[in-house]
Amino acid sequence: MGELFANVIVDISHERVDRPFQYRVPERLQGAVRVGSPVSVPFGAGNRLRKAYVVELTCQAEFDPSRIKEIAGVDETGFCAASQLISLAWWMKERYGSTMNQALKTVLPVKEKIRPVEKKTIRTELSQEELKELCREARRKHYRARERLFSALLDMEEVPYELAVRQLRLTAAALKPMEEKGWIRVDRAEVYRNPVSPVEKRGEEIELNAGQRAAADAFIRDYRAGKPGTYLLYGITGSGKTEVYMEMMAEVLRDGKQVIVLIPEIALTYQTVMRFYRRFGSVVSVINSRLSKGERYDQFERARKGEIQVMIGPRSALFTPFENLGLIVIDEEQEGAYKSELAPRYHAREAAQKRASMAGAGLVLGSATPSLEAYSRALRGEYRLLCLTERAKKDSRLAQTEVVDLREELKSGNRSIFSRRLQELMEDRMEKKEQIMLFINRRGYSSFVSCRSCGEALKCPHCDVSLTLHRNGRLKCHYCGYEIPMPDRCPSCGSPYIAGFGTGTQKIEELTKKMFPQARVLRMDMDTTSKKGGHEEILSAFAEGEADILIGTQMIVKGHDFPKVTLVGVLAADLSLHAPDFACGERTFQILTQAAGRAGRGTDAGSVVIQTYLPDHYSIQAAAAQDYGLFYEKEMTYRRLLHYPPALCMLTIGAACGKEEVLIQAAETMGRTAKAAVNGAGEQGDGRETGWEAGGPAPEIIGPVDAPIYKVNDIYRKILYIKHENYDILLRIRKEIEKLELPVMLSFDLQ
Ligand code: ADP
Ligand code: ZN
Ligand code: ZN
């Protein structure tokens, strides 16, 4: 056997992750040493033995081989959480194309200076009656955070301090007077519950319905048989997926194992989190992006030490170092937020599957609108499909949905943004004092300014995007922050006829108030939620009936239950159909289905009005009919026809550079290399594996082309697409291009 070297990191809890050290793998240990293996190595001048982890195996010595020390031993029994995470990092590097360093930094939390943490718990001696009274009083006085705490204490004997601060949004200053009045007590001792026996919930028992029971049991049976697999829980909005997750989790926790629950940040509201706390008590911990690195590290440490058993959080919670992981749940698996924007550009669904298989854990993906990717895998039998086809709450029915053709409205002279049908229903709901949600299907809404003489839109000089007009009359670039006052003449042709164009949340708010002067209106968008907790404040104000109408972008349709909403108006359903990528039909269907799912969550039947210029588009039709099957069939046909994933695999290579000539050169080289790799692979007989030499289709190369937004922050961007049914071929082409070491920034996406 040839010489083998191992790059190791010596102390994973330290910044040394930045710097691997190289050791020789002695012959007797070859085979036993894997990526992730805990090993002992002589370290430093004194050659004291230290524990280290292997992050990479290579045949190449990085310096004079005679000076490379040998690994002393390998701990074969201890393929612990850290080992698994390191192997996961290795897999991510290979799969997504990044450096090992980037991958390690993603999976291992870097230690920061942390103050020692005290575990604090809030308790009360008050009776249920007294608590209820305080709750009512807090509501009257609009002390929302206080009300949330009292209502939490009604449900649970004790509330972890962290939960109160992070999820219920209390501050130390707000807790103080409550403590002084003797309503609550903040205990500062180390008071853990027995972590293996989750508390039984105090709230009202929910008994699973037959569908939920069957879904939970499918997992539980496999789990007990020692072979939990991957499941896709497809359940319509309001079908009670969360109860099913919790039932599965209870089984795993009873068995002494741990659970990771991924929830998109936007749906990680205190309402959601409280459901888990209520059921499992203080073995639950939550992380979110508002935590500092130190706080996050802290939570991971607690997990590693076995102080918590359930971690809830966005994408990165996947890397919680549980030693004995039994289950990973990914709620709303179709969410775009599960894909990392930074290298390694991993998808949490894929990385979770890898992690689950290393740990022997189950993986449950849940959605009302599964991604095409997940659903096609389920149909192929790679995932086990579990279905919930009915709403969980008795008397709760799916809303009545109507599609309104805006072209017809215009023809009959209605130029308002509200169709006649929507106006009529809004009046009706205002009269009945029921709530309304108006949803604009427009991400980060922007109203741009254009010239009526030459037709040019006012653009950012640094980025290829239109500037956004704000109410204060200034024009802003949402990509780089560039800002100017609104000019009085067109910068291109000098014409004075320039004006704002487009319909945004602010505009809709104004129009709504004009049409319904008596209505209390809340608006939720980037502007109104930017302050800390703004998002949650607005949602709870609306839930508590402080407004009649809530207007907003996609933020308002995720993961919140508003039982009093009986009308949802979708104002521009097709806007998202014009986005420049192949998945826009899928996103449109998902968002419309979610929006429609907001109506009629209570006992009153709901109505949904979808206004559109494209009433015949299948995404809109299928969403209106709440028919996932119909949508899947149409969308899959389209993907097959046009060769898009998941019909086949697609490698997207992005190149970016501040110097346009350099970028153009690099892009050409990339294109040439890809072509050569394709031809070469075919000729070298690799074709046997791929089949295209023997008449199968060769990989298809598209581009390089300019990115949809060619320039951002003075950086130019180009894209190259390569498609083929064989994933490994694309992986190989990616590696060829990585090897070029082009003087531009590259990003890879392989789906
Ligand atoms: P989903 O996540 O599928 O949209 P949820 O889990 O949020 O659905 O459940 C919707 C509502 O139905 C929640 O208020 C939940 O408490 C309630 N619910 C769930 N299961 C049951 C059940 N078996 N019986 C009564 N109510 C239920
Ligand atoms: Zn002009
Ligand atoms: Zn800009």
Automatic annotation (TrEMBL):
<keyword id="KW-0235">DNA replication</keyword>
<dbReference type="InterPro" id="IPR011545">
    <property type="entry name" value="DEAD/DEAH_box_helicase_dom"/>
</dbReference>
<feature type="binding site">
    <location>
        <position position="490"/>
    </location>
    <ligand>
        <name>Zn(2+) 1</name>
    </ligand>
</feature>
<feature type="binding site">
    <location>
        <position position="477"/>
    </location>
    <ligand>
        <name>Zn(2+) 2</name>
    </ligand>
</feature>
<dbReference type="InterPro" id="IPR014001">
    <property type="entry name" value="Helicase_ATP-bd"/>
</dbReference>
<feature type="binding site">
    <location>
        <position position="463"/>
    </location>
    <ligand>
        <name>Zn(2+) 2</name>
    </ligand>
</feature>
<dbReference type="GO" id="GO:0008270">
    <property type="term" value="F:zinc ion binding"/>
</dbReference>
<dbReference type="InterPro" id="IPR001650">
    <property type="entry name" value="Helicase_C-like"/>
</dbReference>
<dbReference type="InterPro" id="IPR040498">
    <property type="entry name" value="PriA_CRR"/>
</dbReference>
<feature type="binding site">
    <location>
        <position position="480"/>
    </location>
    <ligand>
        <name>Zn(2+) 2</name>
    </ligand>
</feature>
<keyword id="KW-0067">ATP-binding</keyword>
<dbReference type="GO" id="GO:0006269">
    <property type="term" value="P:DNA replication, synthesis of primer"/>
</dbReference>
<keyword id="KW-0413">Isomerase</keyword>
<keyword id="KW-0238">DNA-binding</keyword>
<dbReference type="Pfam" id="PF00270">
    <property type="entry name" value="DEAD"/>
</dbReference>
<dbReference type="GO" id="GO:0006310">
    <property type="term" value="P:DNA recombination"/>
</dbReference>
<dbReference type="GO" id="GO:0003677">
    <property type="term" value="F:DNA binding"/>
</dbReference>
<dbReference type="GO" id="GO:0006270">
    <property type="term" value="P:DNA replication initiation"/>
</dbReference>
<feature type="binding site">
    <location>
        <position position="451"/>
    </location>
    <ligand>
        <name>Zn(2+) 1</name>
    </ligand>
</feature>
<dbReference type="GO" id="GO:0006302">
    <property type="term" value="P:double-strand break repair"/>
</dbReference>
<keyword id="KW-0378">Hydrolase</keyword>
<feature type="binding site">
    <location>
        <position position="493"/>
    </location>
    <ligand>
        <name>Zn(2+) 1</name>
    </ligand>
</feature>
<dbReference type="InterPro" id="IPR005259">
    <property type="entry name" value="PriA"/>
</dbReference>
<keyword id="KW-0547">Nucleotide-binding</keyword>
<feature type="domain" description="Helicase ATP-binding">
    <location>
        <begin position="222"/>
        <end position="388"/>
    </location>
</feature>
<keyword id="KW-0347">Helicase</keyword>
<comment type="function">
    <text>Initiates the restart of stalled replication forks, which reloads the replicative helicase on sites other than the origin of replication. Recognizes and binds to abandoned replication forks and remodels them to uncover a helicase loading site. Promotes assembly of the primosome at these replication forks.</text>
</comment>
<dbReference type="InterPro" id="IPR027417">
    <property type="entry name" value="P-loop_NTPase"/>
</dbReference>
<dbReference type="InterPro" id="IPR042115">
    <property type="entry name" value="PriA_3primeBD_sf"/>
</dbReference>
<feature type="domain" description="Helicase C-terminal">
    <location>
        <begin position="485"/>
        <end position="642"/>
    </location>
</feature>
<dbReference type="InterPro" id="IPR041222">
    <property type="entry name" value="PriA_3primeBD"/>
</dbReference>
<dbReference type="GO" id="GO:0016787">
    <property type="term" value="F:hydrolase activity"/>
</dbReference>
<comment type="similarity">
    <text>Belongs to the helicase family. PriA subfamily.</text>
</comment>
<keyword id="KW-0862">Zinc</keyword>
<feature type="binding site">
    <location>
        <position position="454"/>
    </location>
    <ligand>
        <name>Zn(2+) 1</name>
    </ligand>
</feature>
<comment type="subunit">
    <text>Component of the replication restart primosome.</text>
</comment>
<protein>
    <recommendedName>
        <fullName>Replication restart protein PriA</fullName>
        <ecNumber>5.6.2.4</ecNumber>
    </recommendedName>
</protein>
<dbReference type="GO" id="GO:0043138">
    <property type="term" value="F:3'-5' DNA helicase activity"/>
</dbReference>
<dbReference type="Pfam" id="PF00271">
    <property type="entry name" value="Helicase_C"/>
</dbReference>
<keyword id="KW-0639">Primosome</keyword>
<feature type="binding site">
    <location>
        <position position="460"/>
    </location>
    <ligand>
        <name>Zn(2+) 2</name>
    </ligand>
</feature>
<dbReference type="GO" id="GO:0005524">
    <property type="term" value="F:ATP binding"/>
</dbReference>
